[in-house]
Amino acid sequence: MSDPLLSIGRIAGSGMEAQLLRMRIASENIANARSTGATPGADPYRRKTVEFASELDRALGFTGVSVRSIGVDRATAFEVEHDPGNPAADQNGDVKLPNVNVLVEMADLRDAGRSYSANLQMMKQARSMISMTLDLLRGG
User: Fold this and answer.
1) Residue 104 DSSP class
2) Residue 27 burial (C-beta neighbours within 10 Å; 0-12, 13-18, 19+)
3) What is the pLDDT of residue 99?
4) Rounded to a whole number, what is the largest CA-CA distance in the chain?
5) Could you tell me the pTM of the whole model?
6) Alpha helices in 1-140 (DSSP H)
7) Mind listing the pLDDT tens digit of every residue in the chain (140 residues)?
């Protein structure tokens, strides 16, 4: 079994990587919130999702976070807007809009940022504890 203080850093690091990916996916969704299809009647950008899983590393003795999958949201329907002047409009003048809710993505982005900060704080605390332990061992 590895050192518990080092395991803390590995766990927090895996959490930080997971939250960075979550922020990237949410940002990509926000950036494409108004991206329509390339041809008339074509499907627009579809919201991406990320799914995480716990991953046990028996050799190192800790459980971290890993990405299970990056998928697309097929459960939420596209919005349809009547805009006959849009190049992506079908023969009825309707345009399919992405299934991205910017408010949901912003909340997810904020939540991921807070989780990232919490993991970073955990790493700082572990580093501080290691430093204090070394100082005690040195006799100072």
Assistant:
1) H
2) middle
3) 96
4) 81
5) 0.82
6) 4-31, 102-138
7) 467 777 788 888 889 999 999 999 999 999 999 999 989 989 999 999 999 888 776 665 667 788 889 999 999 999 999 999 899 999 999 999 999 999 999 999 999 999 999 999 998 988 888 889 889 999 86
- Contact partners, residue 66, CB within 8 Å, separation at least 6: 14, 18, 52, 53, 54, 55
The Cβ of residue 40 has, within 10 Å, a number of other Cβ atoms equal to 15
Residues 6+ apart with CB under 8 A from 41: 88, 89, 90, 91, 96
Separation of alpha carbons 60 and 4, rounded Å: 10
Contact, 31 vs 54, CB < 8 A? Answer: no
> Which residues have C-beta within 8 Å of that of residue 134, sequence separation ≥ 6?
none
Joined together, the tokens standing for residue 108 give 């997810």
